[in-house]
Design a protein that fits this description.
The chain has 9 helices and 14 strands. The chain is of the alpha+beta class and 333 residues long. It has 3 domains: 2-59; 61-225 and 276-326, 3-Layer(aba) Sandwich (Vanillyl-alcohol Oxidase, Chain A, domain 3); 228-272. The longest helix has 24 residues, at 225-248.
């Protein structure tokens, strides 16, 4: 991670300063120890600096807060971390959306819509949610924070974007370290680490079999085409420069790094040809009537995700933030 690299470099620099000028520089050794410790990896794929930051934010946040999801004309008004309007569309189907990619026509139309948003030059956030319920068929909802015509399989309905765990209107939430309590149930939001739509689409079908309590919330931030080209070019240049420096210093550039560089080059060529550049995130939302049942369902979800080859982060201390992120429009994402 970039911040860990910066902390490591800073600790090395201060350590060298203390070695070269040992007299009267005890405070330099203290700074070296603190920065080196902050750069060390901590549980849940974080550094200790991130872990401390999460703990401070959790301790200083209010435990009870309000969110407001209300229909506003043809859109949904989302009053979370500010106020925004989100256009929601429910899929016209009588079963679960096949997220594994076998529905080629639907996947192509959704991809085409994302490419149109990217070409329009406006940053857009797209949310695709599949919500299970023990009393009804699964609902598949498409949400956009910009007004755009959806594919023909979708019907506009502002109420469709309201999660069943919250309900429409102004709702009070109580945040705890490992879950969030709503008026209807207790919720825990999990996040898939380093999710890639190209590699892990088949895992979505496996997770989709966990009916009755799981919501899959796939978020896509569409980057404008002009900025996407600059980002793709910059990534290839940075990685290529690292390769040249490594080889010039006499070190071997590994096959894994070479594959990563080639993947960046392929992405650059695809973006230059007009493909959209997107940032992806997948949230797994587990709901239960009681805390004991929630823990049991979280364990079952983690086991199913592990069997599908996914790494799931539990989000201790950030449940309130992740609950906001998974909502339509991804407030604060």
């Amino acid at each position: 991670m970039p911040h860990r690299v910066v902390l490591s470099m800073f600790s090395v620099a201060t350590g060298c300063e203390a070695l070269l000028h040992p007299a009267g520089h005890g405070w330099v050794w203290a700074i070296t120890g603190v920065t080196a410790g902050a750069a060390l990896p901590a549980p849940a794929s974080r550094s200790w600096a991130q872990t401390v930051g999460i703990e401070i934010r959790y301790r200083t946040r209010r435990r009870v807060r309000w969110v407001d999801l209300s229909p506003d004309g043809d859109a949904l008004r989302v009053a979370v971390r500010g106020v925004r309007r989100v256009w929601c569309y429910e899929m016209l189907h009588c079963g679960r959306l096949d997220l594994s990619g076998r529905d080629v026509t639907l996947a192509h139309r959704l991809g085409r819509m994302i490419e149109i948003l990217a070409a329009a030059g406006e940053r857009a956030h797209v949310t695709l949610s599949v919500e299970s319920s023990p009393d009804a068929i699964p609902r598949t909802v498409l949400s956009l924070d910009v007004e755009a015509p959806p594919p023909p399989e979708w019907r506009r309905d502002p109420r469709a974007g309201v999660p069943g765990a919250l309900g429409a209107g102004r709702v009070a939430l109580i945040e705890r370290r490992d879950y969030v309590r709503t008026p209807h149930c207790v919720v825990r939001v999990l996040r898939v680490v380093r999710f890639s739509a190209d590699r892990e689409t088949t895992a979505l079908e496996t997770l989709g079999d966990l009916a009755e309590w799981l919501t899959l919330s796939l978020h896509v931030t569409v980057i404008p085409a002009s900025r996407a080209r600059r980002l793709a070019e910059r990534a290839v240049h940075r990685r290529g420069s690292d390769a040249n420096v490594t080889r010039g210093a006499g070190f071997r550039w590994s096959a894994r790094h070479e594959q990563e560089l080639e993947a960046l080059r392929q992405r650059e060529r695809a973006v230059a040809a007009g493909a959209a550049l997107c940032q992806w995130a997948l949230y797994l939302v587990v709901c239960a009537p009681t805390l004991e049942e929630l823990r049991r369902r979280v364990v079952a979800t983690r086991e199913r995700a592990r069997g599908a080859g996914l790494i799931v982060e539990l989000g201790a201390g950030v449940q309130g933030e992740w609950l906001d992120y998974y909502l339509p429009g991804g407030p604060g994402w």
